[in-house]
Design a protein that fits this description.
about 30% helix, alpha+beta, about 130 residues, four-stranded antiparallel beta sheet
């Protein structure tokens, strides 16, 4: 008789452990089934903005044309890194590009240009 009580207690303890492990799994599955049936609201797409810039390097000169096709203004700045160690790298002053406008940015090195790029900032903020 004693063996039967032990076995019963063991089975009860084992079933309690299994039930304790299965309850969170069942709740997790129920949450996903319910979420799949209900349509979640779509995240809003950010408004497109920013000027498109094309940069050309010819010898020691850099020219960038930036066109802004969007309704919000953009601020662009040309950065030029010269190839020679003694040549001064430069950053142009930030220029505002209004909606539907195109601006021209230019710079030069004494000798060859190592690289040139344009950065963007929101018109409402100051460029850093």
């Amino acid at each position: 008789m004693r063996g039967t009580h032990r076995r019963t207690r063991s089975l009860l303890a084992a079933s309690a452990v299994v039930a304790g492990l299965l309850v969170p799994v069942g709740l997790y599955a129920a949450g996903h089934v319910g979420a799949a049936g209900a349509a979640a609201p779509a995240a809003p797409d950010p408004e497109p903005s920013g000027a498109e810039c094309r940069t050309a390097v010819q010898g020691s000169r850099v020219v960038a044309y930036c066109h802004n096709p969007y309704p919000s203004a953009d601020r662009v700045q040309l950065h030029t890194e010269c190839a020679r160690w003694w040549d001064v790298d430069t950053d142009s002053a930030p220029v505002g590009v209004g909606p539907g406008r195109t601006v021209r940015l230019d710079d030069r090195c004494w000798k060859e240009v190592g690289s040139a790029w344009v950065t963007h900032a929101d018109e409402n903020r100051t460029a850093s």
